[in-house]
Amino acid sequence: MMAACLFVFSACTNVQKTTATAETLETVMAVPATVKAGEPVPLTFTVLNHTGQEQEFCKWHTPFEGFIAAFLDIKGSDGEAVAYRGAMAKRIMPPPAEAYIKIPAGDSVTVDIDLLKGYDLTKPGKYHIVYQAGGVSGLEKVNELDLVITE
What's this model's pTM, rounded to 2 decimal places? Predict the structure, then answer.
């Protein structure tokens, strides 16, 4: 039954999952496989704690703080980068305690965000999406996605 549910879910959205170990946080991004040009491009960003104790990560440069930094590298099939059009915050390091999100043992946190509000995804074509801000957030284990924008 579970395999059937996973198959149906993966057929509806583009999810490529990484393999986690017991000592890491795992991040799974998901987008629809295709989106019509001009319509919202929903990204679901989930951070899972597979450990037996509470873990935390910095929300800076993640969808958990919205478009305050370019946290994704999105390229078209021609290799050209998609323009980021959100804000760019400058911050003092190290991050304060309130910049961290805590995840209880065996739990997860999820946020949904519309990529169209931060990236110029208005032209039809195939796009490759990579999370690129692990150096700030500490989220290194993140899958990559492909997205098709149709006319």
Answer: 0.83
